[in-house]
Design goal:
Helix content: over 70%
Radius of gyration: 20 Å
Number of helices: 7
Oligomer: single chain
Largest sheet: none
């Protein structure tokens, strides 16, 4: 009886240690990606964010940062996908505001790069919707958002 309790306790300890190591590893990969991003190595940043997401596919920071790294590479459809996931995943008001704002930026950049008039219209509509959603989360940024839209379009 005592031996089985010790074995169970050791099992829990090993499980806890492996979960802790995985979390530290995925966080280290995000930090490494952030350093690459700061050095304008967006491909390197993308690689590290994706490695982090392999360990934890629901890590909001990695998803959001991956979306931003993809925007910098002008890979707008992929960036939009990641930023949409991020905007739906985060709960914190500031994080949600940032995710929607950057999603609007990605849509706007895609709009500028698109040649097809029908697709352009849809991209612009999505950019406006994203900026509105951003402002719903942080209404005091209304003037900043309005000026940003005028400047970019």
């Amino acid at each position: 009886m005592m031996l089985s309790r010790i074995v169970i306790l050791q099992g829990f300890i090993l499980l806890f240690q492996s979960l802790t190591a995985t979390a530290q590893n995925e966080n280290a990969l995000v930090r490494k990606g952030n350093k690459q991003y700061e050095k304008n190595n967006f491909v390197g940043a993308e690689v590290n964010y994706k490695k982090s997401l392999e360990k934890n596919p629901n890590k909001p920071e990695a998803i959001y940062n991956l979306g931003n790294a993809l925007v910098q590479q002008e890979r707008y459809p992929d960036a939009i996908k990641q930023l949409e996931i991020s905007s739906n995943m985060v709960k914190d008001q500031v994080d949600k505001h940032n995710a929607f704002h950057n999603l609007g930026n990605a849509y706007l950049q895609a709009y500028k790069a698109e040649k097809d008039p029908q697709k352009k219209s849809s991209l612009l509509d999505n950019a406006i919707t994203s900026y509105k959603n951003s402002l719903k989360e942080q209404p005091y940024d209304y003037e900043i958002g309005r000026a940003s839209c005028r400047e970019r379009v």
